[in-house]
Amino acid sequence: MSSSSSPVEHEDLWFEDGDVVMNVTEGGVEHRFRVHRSILAIASPVFRDMLSMPQPSGGQDLPISLLDAVQDVTALLGALYVFRKAQTMNFDVALGILHLSHKYQIEGLQDAMTQKLLEEWPLSRHDYVARLSLHGYSADIRIPQALKLIDVAQRCQASVLLPTAFYELACVWETRWEELARSLSLENVGRLAVGLARFKRRLVTFRKPDTRRQLLMWDCETSDDDDPGTIHQYHEDTFDRCAWPCPLYQAYQAKLSECMNCGAFMILALGRIGQEDLGDDVCGQCRAWFENVLANKAQELWESIPDDFNLPKVDAHLYSQSQVKML
Questions:
Q1: Contact 121/137 with Cβ under 8 angstroms?
Q2: Measured distance CA(39)–CA(171) in Å, rounded
Q3: Which end of the chain has fewer CB within 10 Å, C or N?
């Protein structure tokens, strides 16, 4: 279409009693929205300032031209008029509203969209594992979304949305680095490369020589002065016929090796434990304890993401603030 095409009036956002016409030109086509001054002024101080301009003579509608995407403006106005509820919004709609609600200083809507996006990009590791278990993972969907999310979240200062997006890109960095390098800023490419290296160094520290002693130190009646043989004997006397601790230590090292080599979802690999990992000779109580050890290590890695990737600090309590009810 040429730029001389007739303006398009939005079907659902053209009110006969409206007194403001918002114009958005995209692809040579002018899109028009006839809305109410009162709705805009109450929602946004930026719109309120725009509306303080002198009124056109003859009772004409006040025109406002925006340089935003038509899809984003449509989504924003739909949210202001409560046409579209957060529960029914897809990723792109929520991201567009987040962007414009930040630009036009609509704080309540910005907070609501941040919470909506946290459902799919949670800060809680528990929610993240639950989400992947429920929906699975598709690189063709998640990688483009992570790239868009990082761009908008950084512009909107929505730092709580960054750790999970950077984590997922780091997991695929070694196999898709050329694609990511073309799509990210140089600063964010540096964050990914440095963050992944730091992440792997943390895994290496979990394999340091005294890890075995730390793994053995599971009972309050033992002390750091006890040698492994003494602790092992204590275990055999307490839990008859359990082959701990050698299978546990070997499984722990194997899990860390899996995380070092898997290239994707390192934290999830660390947190998983199956019958094949320990065999049949480890008792249920030791198995439960070992799962707790892995979960604690996984959580430690998860909460280190902002520091490792040079991201803004995130309040520690947000890591345990579940959004799982919305998944």
A1: no
A2: 44
A3: N
| pLDDT tens-digit series, residues 181-225 | 999 999 999 999 999 888 888 877 766 545 544 554 444 344 445
- The confidence score (pLDDT) of residue 95 equals 96
What's the pLDDT at 62? 83
Residue 106's pLDDT is: 96
Does residue 288 contact residue 273 with C-beta atoms inside 8 Å?
no
pLDDT at 37 over 80: yes
Q: What is the pTM of this model?
A: 0.81
Cα 195 from chain centre: 16
Give 278's strand partners: none
Strands (E), the chain: 8-14, 20-26, 29-35, 62-66
Give the span between the Cα atoms of 235 and 219, in whole angstroms. 9
DSSP 3-state assignment of 264? coil
User: Residue 85 carries which side chain, given as an amino acid letter?
Assistant: K
What Å distances lie between residue 132 and 20, 121, 126, 142, 261, CA to CA?
Answer: 44, 10, 10, 11, 20
Kindly give, in sequence order, each residue whose CB lies less than 8 Å from that of residue 164, ignoring residues fewer than 6 positions away. Answer: 121, 122, 123, 128, 305
Within 8 A by CB and 6+ apart from 145, the residues are 91, 120
User: Cα dist. 44→26, 191, 284 in Å?
Assistant: 24, 34, 58
Angle at 305 between CA 93 and CA 136, to 5 degrees: 50
DSSP string over 93-114: HHHHHHHHHHHTT-HHHHHHHH
The predicted-structure confidence for 270-296, as pLDDT tens digits, reads as follows 556 655 666 666 666 767 777 777 777
Enumerate helices (H) and strands (E) in the chain, giving the number of each: 16, 4
CB 12 within 8 A of CB 84: no
